[in-house]
UniProtKB/TrEMBL annotation:
The keyword Transferase applies. InterPro entries: Glyco_trans_1. Keywords: Glycosyltransferase, Transferase. This is Glycosyltransferase family 4 protein. GO terms for molecular function: glycosyltransferase activity. The lineage of its organism: Bacteria, Pseudomonadati, Bacteroidota, Flavobacteriia, Flavobacteriales.
Length: 390
């Protein structure tokens, strides 16, 4: 029997109930006998039975900030001198200034006092300025890349992962594309493990008596440019021009809501497009159960749980070729993959799926549902993470 481990998971905030990826992972590790400690910057009410450790919160007042920082450092030096010294020395070897070395000790003080077998950063960006913390406390280091942190953040912050990629790290990624990218960065293939998202299949079952509305279309997404919603609306305007009536519901909130609503107005889609806002998981399931087509025309996407959920709920899925989506959907087998930023091509596929016979739809939705059941179950994901930490 393998040794039970103490695993530290670093996240920005306590996982919400809807964040099934982290929730299922934590519960699976706990059920296998491992101890999980959650390190967060923002501590919210949690439904998890887990130790949650919040990062130090500094004051806005400069004088208070200095006093509080000195108190944190003094306490850390008295109680955890070995890990403090090690982290400081490693940061110095990496060329960090004295100021940044001290800042590193302060912002990581809540982690440096722990003894762990593994320290796992839930997103690549969370490992920045913490590249040496795992080694300082004698733990193995793991980092997950999920999408934005891998594809977008480095574009805006060039060379941000230079120090990280020099460290001894085991990486978790969502897709083969991400794995290839890390190997190109010089990381040993053996240190990169693909574990795709998963869903609780018991939650996403459609009642046999439920009749789907033929031309009801849905998307679950943040209202953000990266989700390609403006291209989706342009494609749907072309569908409407062909005399096809439909209802398109967008589930989610975000900074681009006003811009997207204006696009709806300009594209003459006011009678077709509905913004439903943020919904709870049961409300999302209800919307999926009424719909027949799911669209995810993102410009960038790590993998997308919502597409898995839509397939499980027997919707015809049409997605862009953005990163993990082309692994989530097998083109023309379990759905359709269309090149991003091509609204005309996207519209053609939407029209094609609307005009499918019931038999043609059933062939694809059944293949999609079967693949989700076989490949993307929570149980399989948990077993993959148990192997990851061996």
């Amino acid at each position: 029997m393998s040794k039970k481990k103490k695993i530290g998971l670093v996240l920005a905030a306590t996982p919400a109930y809807s964040e099934t990826f982290f929730n299922s992972k934590i519960k699976g590790l706990q059920e296998a006998g491992h101890k999980v400690v959650l390190f967060v910057n923002s501590k919210n009410t949690s439904h998890l039975d887990i130790e949650i450790v919040k990062a130090p919160e500094l004051a806005n007042n400069k004088v208070k900030n200095i006093v509080l920082s000195l108190f944190i450092l003094l306490k850390l030096l008295l109680l955890n001198f070995a890990s403090v010294k090690k982290n400081y020395q490693l940061d110095k070897e990496d060329g960090l200034s004295f100021k940044k070395r001290v800042q590193s000790l302060i912002i990581n003080s809540h982690i440096l006092k722990y003894k762990l077998d593994w320290l796992h950063f839930g997103f690549g960006t969370l490992a920045l300025n913490r590249e040496n913390v795992a080694q300082a406390i004698g733990a193995k280091m793991a980092v997950s890349f999920r999408g934005f942190d891998h594809y977008v953040y480095p574009v805006k912050n060039l060379n941000c992962y230079t120090i990280l990629f020099k460290k001894e790290v085991k990486y978790h990624v969502l897709s083969d594309g991400m794995k290839k990218d890390l190997i190109l960065e010089g990381i040993d293939e053996k240190q990169v493990v693909k574990i795709t998202p998963a869903i609780d299949l018991s939650l996403f079952k459609i009642a046999e008596e439920r009749k789907k509305e033929r031309n009801r279309i849905v998307t679950i997404a943040r209202l953000h440019w990266i989700k390609g919603l403006e291209y989706t609306l342009q494609a749907l305007a072309l569908v409407k021009q062909k005399g096809i009536n439909f209802e398109y519901c967008i589930i989610g909130e975000g900074v681009d809501q006003e811009r997207l609503k204006f696009a709806v107005y300009q594209l003459n889609l006011q009678e077709n497009v509905f913004f439903l806002g943020k919904l709870n998981p049961m409300e999302v399931k209800e919307e999926l159960s009424k719909s027949s087509i799911y669209l995810q025309y993102s410009l960038q996407e790590g993998f997308c749980n919502a597409v898995l959920e839509a397939q499980a709920m027997e919707l015809l899925c049409i997605v862009s070729d953005a990163e993990g989506l082309s692994e989530n959907i097998l083109d023309e087998e379990t759905g359709f993959v269309v090149k991003k930023r091509k609204p005309e091509a996207f519209a053609r596929v939407i029209v094609q799926t609307i005009n499918f016979s019931d038999v043609e739809k059933k062939v694809i939705t059944a293949a999609a549902k079967n693949r989700v059941n076989e490949v993307f179950s929570v149980e399989k994901q948990i077993q993959s993470f148990l192997s990851f930490y061996k």
